[in-house]
Design brief:
single chain; 123 residues; mainly alpha; 0% strand
Length: 123
Amino acid sequence: MGAKEKHRQKMLSYWGDPEKEFIPRGKMCSDVLKLSRFTFYHHFRPAEVSEIENEAIEMRKAASSSQRAVLYKSLYDAGVAGDVKAIKEFLDRTEGKVIDRKEITGEGGKSIVPILNVTITGD
């Protein structure tokens, strides 16, 4: 296994562990991998690091599913008991957040961007 693959596995192992804080890339390269940023980004393009982060997040989710189930159950129970914040949080987490859309228009629904009409006349 080459150095790049060893670093990749180390990142997955660290970021994928739900018991550890999900640290930023800078701390990953200096504190965990013991690499300079130059060496880190010489090995990995930013898109590759994003893929590793996403894979690690999925690992964290899989490893913590039973703990999350307990938390969701407690949110659910609090919501059933009438806790409005718990209801909102539970629904945001299980069904997705509701998008708050605001449309800004001028008087009578007209555009707020002024229209400039220019007429060019020749000599």
